[in-house]
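Second attempt. The first submission of Intraflagellar transport protein 22 homolog had a stray character pasted in from the spreadsheet, which I only caught after the job came back as garbage. Lesson logged: always re-copy from the clean sequence file. Corrected sequence (190 aa) follows.
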Amino acid sequence: MFKLKVVVIGPTKSGKTSISNFLADATESSGGEYHPTQGVRILQFESANLGTNNQSIKADVELWDCSGDASRFESCWPAFQQGAQGVVLVYDPNTSGHGNELETLYSYFVQQAGLNSKSCLVLANPKSSLRSTAVTLSGTFSRVPQSTANIDENGNKLRSDFNTFLTGLISRVKDTHEQEELSIMSSYPT
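This time the job returned cleanly.
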């Protein structure tokens, strides 16, 4: 069984906790009131039936639901990011400024951490159907898998997209481990 650490981060009020609860099948509810995450919440769950190379794989997933309040918690980012194999960036495409914040988060949690762009998933989580300030993401995200996170209208698609993302992470983790093993074995004299 594979162990995966996935960081969920994005601007404040983008819906990270709701999405994290949904993906982890957690039943926490705030009664519709907004309660900002203080630091980080770690949800652990088993994700079964992830298909890779024609076989079914299970993964123990640690989903780190991180606060989007950079002014208060940016000093904690190194701890959030340490050991993460994947990053889910959540934003509201109808909130101006979210695109710029996503750039900063992508730079730190993906690029500076040395992760592949495929180790990141961007979820647009519109809070309303109004498109008065629709955010357009920069070319930085052109190679990053993207999806819409509408739990109420299409939760099955969100879960499917997330499972596809996890399957890709497992494949990359396996490849990395195999490369490390080959490197170690080739360093021994024959």
